[in-house]
Design goal:
The chain has 363 residues and is an alpha/beta fold. It is built from eleven helices and 17 strands.
Length: 363
């Protein structure tokens, strides 16, 4: 049964905020008897988990810092990148500008999450911060490039992955991740395809489907759509047999005709099935919260990560709109098992996505 708890706002009206739960003191370390098997010893983690189970729903809600004004029905930006290279264009950022983007995100309260987690409503962002999602279309070599240095092949520090790894080391709490949408030649340098794809998954990034021919879906029938998606799905499976591709970036932002949408979401090609949980359009505007009734996971909005010819719809246009409070951004309550929203937005809460999470509504 889905549960909703409404936080009474009378205390807030007098300048008070919801109390925070006290952190229990750690018990003293006691040396275990030598005849006790290590697997039978109770760990601190076990005790902490038991304590969490003992918390009431009211305790969980009370532990949320309401002074941060959490708003988990605010917008989340899914950024649409393509290349990172020497020339700046609508579809390519220079290494310096990509570094500028990441530095801005970190310094202004954004923390990365994966597209896959967004699509499942699994928001684990630290309290007070805003989730942001990075996506790269086409699987270009400048997304993930090896260069030769002193006779050895090493990660290019100016490719997209190289720069993100730089920021991962610089800011460990940035939670650096991204989704790369691949076609037929993942990241170029075919001789290193296996190494690159293994590395991507081992280091916390995700892979998505960008179709075989990059054709407009609106011009394809059901069988053709399954070939486009299934072919790339099978290419990735050749390298990563156990990896499940769950996301799709539409070429040219072209959706299939209504009667063929199901083929985009589920299908089978040459013996391998696929199922898509999130479909991305081209860049235009921020997406809604995954908990918002307005969210359509079959056609998710993205923001073009550019400052050139974007008609006031580029990355920094939307950053500024949040700074100026023209738009409302998602502010995490810090607890992935609770959805905290202002009462004024409660009519837009999608309980089918919320599922068994607690809901905390406040004035």
């Amino acid at each position: 049964m889905k549960k909703i708890i409404i936080l009474i706002a009378l205390l807030m009206m007098t300048g008070c905020t919801a109390p925070t739960a006290e952190t229990p003191e750690e018990p003293p370390v006691v040396e275990a008897p030598v005849d006790v098997h290590p697997e039978e010893q109770e760990t601190d983690t076990d005790k902490s988990n038991e304590e969490d189970k003992d918390l009431t729903e009211e305790d969980i809600i009370a532990s949320i810092d309401m002074s941060l004004n959490p708003n988990e029905l605010g917008e989340i930006m899914i950024l649409m990148y393509h290349g990172v290279g020497p020339e700046e264009s609508v579809w390519q950022r220079t290494p310096d500008n990509f570094r500028k983007d990441l530095e801005y995100m970190y310094q202004n309260g954004y923390r990365m999450i994966s597209l896959n987690d967004y699509a499942k409503g699994e928001i684990k962002t630290e309290a007070g911060f805003t989730p942001i999602i990075l996506t790269f279309d086409d699987g270009r070599q400048n997304n993930f490039n090896f260069i030769e240095v002193n006779g050895e092949m090493v990660l290019d520090p100016d490719c997209a992955v190289g720069i993100m790894e730089e920021f991962k080391n610089k800011y460990p709490d940035f939670n650096v991740t991204a989704s790369f949408f691949l076609g037929t030649n993942p990241f170029g340098q075919k001789e290193y395809a296996q190494e690159k794809l293994d590395w991507i998954i081992d280091n916390g990034y995700d892979l998505g489907n960008h179709t075989y021919s990059h054709n407009e879906m609106s011009k394809l029938n059901s069988d053709e759509i399954q070939i486009e998606i299934g072919s790339v799905n099978n290419i990735i499976k050749q390298y990563l047999p156990d990896y499940v591709v769950e996301t799709l970036a539409l070429p040219h932002g072209s959706n299939p005709k209504d009667e063929f949408i199901e083929s985009m979401l589920k299908g089978e090609y040459e013996g391998n099935k696929y199922e898509t949980i999130a479909v991305l359009d081209v860049g235009w505007r921020p997406s809604y919260s995954p908990f918002d009734t307005l969210t359509n996971f079959n056609s998710l909005y993205r923001v073009t990560a550019s400052e050139i010819n974007v008609d006031n719809c580029g990355i920094y246009d939307y950053f500024k709109s949040y700074e100026d409070n023209i738009r409302e951004r998602f502010i995490s309550d810090g607890n992935p098992d609770v959805v905290t929203i202002p009462k004024r937005h409660s009519e837009y809460l999608n309980m089918d996505i919320v599922e068994d999470r607690l809901v905390n509504v406040y004035e």
